[in-house]
Amino acid sequence: MRYLVPIAMCAILSCATAFPSVADESVTTQSLLREMTDRDRVAHYPQHDFRLKQASSYNRASKTPDDPKGWFDNFDRSTNDTHKNYVRVEENDGRKEYVVMEDEGAGAITRFWVPWKNQLKPGSDMVIRFYLDGSSEPVIEGNMFELFQGKGLIPFPLAHESLRSAVSFFPIPYAKNCKVTMSDHPFFFQFTYREYDEDVAVKTFSMEDFTAAKPLIDTTCQKLLNPNASAAGEVVNMKETIGGGNEQSVSLPAREAAITSLSLKLGSYEDPNVTRHVVLKISFDDKETVWCPIGDFFGSGIGLNPLQGWYRTVNADGTMTCRWVMPYKNNAKISVVNLGDVPVSVDFSATIGDWKWDSRSMYFHAGWRGQYPVPTRPYSDWNYVTLQGRGVYVGDTLTIMNPVERWWGEGDEKIFVDGESFPSIFGTGTEDYYAYSWGGRSTDFYEHPFHGQPFSHKYNKLNRKTGNEKNTQGFSTETRTRALDTMPFGSSLKLDMEVWSWTDCDMGYGVGTYWYGFADTTSNRKPEPVEALNVPPLPDMSAAESAAKTSPKAASNAADFKGAVECEKMEVVSKSGKVVLKPQNLRKLKLKGSWNLDTHVLFKDAQVGDVVELRIPASSPSAQKLVLHATKSYDFGILRLSVNGKPVAADVDLYAAKPVPSETIELGTSDPVKSSYVLRVELVGKNPQSKGAFFGLDCVTLSPAQ
Question: Where does the source fall among the domains of life (predicted)?
Fold first, then answer.
């Protein structure tokens, strides 16, 4: 067996009796398409047991949390031969192919994600090939964006052009093995797939099956785009005004049944914090399994942010609806809690349908965790949820507060299942987990049946982004629900997300998590009323908005040079190779942009591997915040930086089509050593478009640590 999950034989026999059609059915493209839109099925532990795995371009230096430098290394891509974030390179029919996923045994690809290679230029020239069951000929071959962004082979929404990404949820099953290759260095990628137990019969995908399944494909697409729950059942209503610190409850019919739809509307959303202060509680068979603020439960985040997905809809009129199927055996109770001080009006309804409880039926759970402040240094993993027992993880909604303009979402998801020592799902960035990319630029609303960004910076469905500014300050809400990419677990599941920002600052985190479990399945998520009231304060964004109106370019590139130390004034502690330091007056070169004193130092004749160390005099005996200002150009390389021996950020690519000032490069907060800081600059590579590997440094600004 590929893995072991203890299940009593009587339970297996009971399941086979209760679900003969499922037990006898082999896994096929068509069975997976039917499963994708079967909400009842998600509430049952899978008859065809599997574990979800992921092949991604995560940094292979990340091996163990005992080595923090490697564990939080975030160079999660491959752009040249020095980067090895893939399986291997093969020669096929005289062409080079990069293997990005390989799995032995029965399985099915259920999701894959790839980003634009250039944040301002859509698409890719990459050819992707899928080889199944050892065949030397690919069953699918073509441009990966043309095939999988909803306008080619796979229709929308089974494939989707997300924000600067292509995402596919079309199932590709295989009986023996699967190999996926790309025609060039594969940049970023994620392939999520099921590994079935060895006794599961799987029919391998073929184009003949695809053609035969077209009517079902069309039906599936229409269902996903019109996500109505069954109207059959008994409706339970509650319409109350709930005072501050109070709650109101309603009991559901006492019998075997299931909630099939649940809707809630508040009288006012004028105070956006109301979606965090009003909490939904549900108990099934005398056990509370749901405690979650309504914004995080329905996917709206802080405030009213409309969204339509397969499991949840938030309308502009304030009606929030979920369509998770929530079964119970004997009794259930729904409560709405007002943690705030001001009374709130609540209009609530639930539809209760029939359900036959069996040994695979599970209880629905929704938990929540909030924390403010969350420091971004040192880098850390922030736990969404840890589960013990047996169940299926089905989704989450993350709302963060970012106090600065620079991008916050480089952190990777790390998901450990059934006691793994290394996560079987290791991602490439928080935005990638939520199916978009280039997050610093992608501050806009988007939605899809299984994922979305209901709010970012100041934009939502009712206020779309019209410019191209890079500003991720303020709240962002990301949500993801799972269908074929649900995560079954037999004994445990732990989901962590890296806190990995480009800036040393304090952020706010709040996450709603959703899963199904049996009566003895437990979670580390408990009610957190104090944190639900601790809504992170928004930063003052007026200055950035004023600068953007005056000059959009200035808003993203203008630098504050207060407390600057010019690089040409720094002592050179050491340098390797034949590196030559040459001060340049950039005004005389008639370059556009802002540099301190209109100068920088050009580091000429540098080769990959060269290191330069510069001593920066401290302006205070106490800890200071250091920010580097540099230059980008057509022949500049990629730098790795540290201060006083401490790595400070991801590698910095200084390539640009023409010379421009870089964005500010946060070096973190450090205590001086012997009244100074030593900045170590290592040249580690170059952009494929760069004509060289020089680099130019302007200055370092020092300011008091906050």
Answer: Bacteria
| Cα separation, 656 vs 659, whole angstroms | 7
Q: Decide if 29-225 and 234-535 have a common fold.
A: yes
E strand spans, 199-300: 234-242, 247-251, 257-266, 278-284, 287-293
**For residues 462 and 316, is the Cβ–Cβ distance under 8 A?**
yes
Query: Average pLDDT in the 194-211 region?
Result: 96
Query: Can you tell me the distance from the alpha carbon of 583 to that of 128, in angstroms, rounded to the nearest whole number?
Result: 46
Kindly list the distances between the CA atom of residue 605 and the CA atoms of 515, 582, 586, 683, 693, in Å, as whole numbers in the listed order. Answer: 56, 11, 19, 11, 8
Q: What are phi and psi of 297, to 5 degrees?
A: -70, -45
Q: Residue 41, Cα to own-chain centre: how many angstroms?
A: 25
Q: How many helices (H) and strands (E) does the chain have?
A: 14, 47
pLDDT in tens, 166-175: 999 999 999 9
Length of the chain as a residue count: 706
Q: Return the CA Rg of the chain.
A: 27
Q: Where are the beta strands (DSSP E) in 309-343?
A: 312-314, 319-322, 326-328, 332-338
Dihedral sign for Cα atoms in the order 200, 206, 208, 210: positive
By three-state DSSP, how is residue 499 classified?
strand
- Sequence-distant (6+) residues with CB within 8 A of 35 are 41, 483, 484
Answer left, alpha or beta for residue 418, where phi above 0 means left and psi between -120 and 50 means alpha.
left
The three-state secondary structure class of 650 is coil
Distance between CA atoms of residues 698 and 599, nearest Å: 7
Q: Give the separation between CA 363 and CA 346, rounded to whole angstroms.
A: 25
Q: Report whether 630 contacts 596 (CB < 8 A).
A: no
Helix (H, G, I), strand (E, B) or coil at 82: coil
Give the residue extent of every domain in the chain.
29-225, 234-535, 564-704
Distance separating alpha carbons of residues 485 and 457, to the nearest angstrom: 29
Q: What mean pLDDT is predicted for residues 112-118?
A: 94
H/E element, 15: helix 9-18
- The angle at the Cα of 501, spanning 498 to 506, to the nearest 5 degrees, equals 95
From 485-489, 532-536, 566-570, 594-598, the region with the lowest mean pLDDT:
594-598
Mean predicted confidence (pLDDT) in 8-27: 45
Q: Peptide bond before 373: cis, by omega within 30 degrees of 0?
A: yes
Prediction pTM value:
0.78
Q: Looking at per-residue confidence, does 551 or 460 come out higher?
A: 460
Q: What is the mean pLDDT of residues 5-14?
A: 34
pLDDT at 232: 87
d(CA 247, CA 278) in angstroms, rounded, equals 9
Give the integer Cα–Cα distance in Å for 193 and 112.
9
Reply yes or no on domain 29-225 having CATH 3.90.550.10: no
Q: What angle do CA 286, 292, 294 make, to 5 degrees?
A: 120
* Separation between Cα atoms, residue 611 and residue 46, nearest integer Å: 54
The reply to whether CATH 2.60.120.1390 applies to domain 234-535 is yes
> How far does Cα 492 stand from its chain's mean position?
21
Domain 564-704 homologous superfamily, CATH:
Galactose-binding domain-like (2.60.120.260)
| Interatomic CA distance for residues 612 and 363, integer angstroms | 59
Cα–chain center distance at 267? 32
Q: Which residues contact 370 (CB under 8 A, 6 or more apart)?
A: 276, 508, 509, 510, 511, 528, 531, 532, 534
Using pLDDT thresholds of 50, 70 and 90, give the confidence band for residue 82: confident
pLDDT, tens only, 658-700: 899 998 999 999 999 999 999 999 999 999 899 999 999 999 9
In this predicted structure, what is the pLDDT of residue 560? 63
Give burial (CB, 10 Å; 0-12/13-18/19+) of 227.
middle
